Amino acid sequence: MELSVQEYQYLVSEITRETGAKRDGSGKNLIVPRCPFCGKSGGKFGIYIGKETAHRRPFMAHCFSCGASTRTLEQLLAAIGRMDLMVSQTADIAAPLNLHLLEEDEAEEIDDELVPVELPDFYKRTFRHPYLQRRGFCFDDYEYFPIGITGRLNPRYADYVVFPVIDDSTVVGYVSRHTWPKEDIDTHNRKTRHSGGYRILRYRNSTENDFSKLLYNYDAIRMDETDTVILAEGIFDVIALTRRLELYDNSHVAAVATFGKKISDVQIYKLQSKGVRTVVIGYDGDAVESVKRTAERLKPYFEVFIADIADAAKDWDELTESEIYGIFACRLLSVLEYKLKKVQEK
Ligand SMILES: [Zn+2]
Q: InterPro entries under this entry (predicted)?
């Protein structure tokens, strides 16, 4: 069965009326004020009404609070108590809908779809690199975290190390870090500002997928097996934590990075959909406000702890093994403990 555009529009308007939903900014989702499964208010229940994609079908719905999902129109109508809207549709309800009229809408909101990304030309994997050796990389790091270089064949990336971001075994992005120290890059850029020379970018990253939809090391989270995730800001933090806590083959605990000091709805959804229960926020010690905000966003969905780094100026790759062990053994704080502690420290 294919729904006609009229039938589709009628369903959307009836569902909207029944649930009191509003469209989100992209127009591709209905945000329902109260979840029909858990009753939570605050617009946590979303119904996808955009065109069919590889991962999404119209009328799929998900609650970001209780995690309940519906995959078909029928399940959704049952959930909101409007099976009467199903009556006219007798044939194959699970068949894809054909919604060409909706194509013009390009905005993206609650949309976890990713496109595959090509790594820079001449990328090849490396298992030893002076820059990474200096940052403490060991054999297992290269083994578990693919890292590459392009060499001189690709001048644009010649002085960079490239970290592919992988999701479901597919490259969906990359972060490239120039191998000079930050101070040297700044000095170079200052000198060339007037001479008209080229500027060095410290990072040269992929642009196809927004990084707020990605998590570095996401595949290390095993479906319904990994219970606890440590949330870090960047790739070097993830690798340092994995090395120091020896998480390489640990199927219950994984470190992932959000590419910054905040977490998006899509990233939360990605953790939830793999059955993660506990999140330990491991952002830099000086990011107090960001940690608090992130903790509040995570609290409805996970058990949340905060890894409180004693020396706020240090990153994970600057701490010793015993310091890191100490943080996880003795300094994991609940959200409330963290807030109280930060008030006292002021
Ligand atoms: Zn719910």
A: DnaG_primase, TOPRIM_DnaG_bac
How many Å apart are CA 8 and CA 26, to the nearest integer? 18
Same domain, 188 and 248: no
Task: Express each pLDDT in 266-280 by its tens digit.
Answer: 999 899 888 899 999
330, part of any domain:
yes
C-alpha 38 – ligand 1 centre gap (Å): 4
Residue with token string 């194509």: 103
Distance 231 CA to ligand 1 centre (A): 24
pLDDT tens-place string over residues 298-310 = 998 899 999 988 7
Q: In sequence order, which residues have a C-beta less than 8 Å from that of residue 228 and are 6 or more positions away?
A: 252, 253, 254, 276, 277, 278, 279, 280
Instruction: Indicate whether 238 and 321 sit together in one domain.
Output: yes
Give φ, ψ of 23 to 5 degrees.
-75, 145
